[in-house]
Amino acid sequence: MKNNLEKIRKERGISQEHLANALSVSRQTISSLENGKYNPSILLAFKIAKYFSIPIEKVFIYEEE
After folding, report:
1. More confident residue, 28 or 63
2. Which residue, 11, 17, 22, is CA-closest to 47?
């Protein structure tokens, strides 16, 4: 699954550490998400979208294989 998390986070001037703290996850989790090494749980995906006040589809891009 691709995502725009890094782009959105940087556009808003938010550090990985700040976002991780706001979502109660580790900074490594944010890094892994941004690098495409980890797919979030549906709950975490919704928390991220809610944090940025944007639809989940703007953060995460589902592509059928």
Report:
1. 28
2. 22
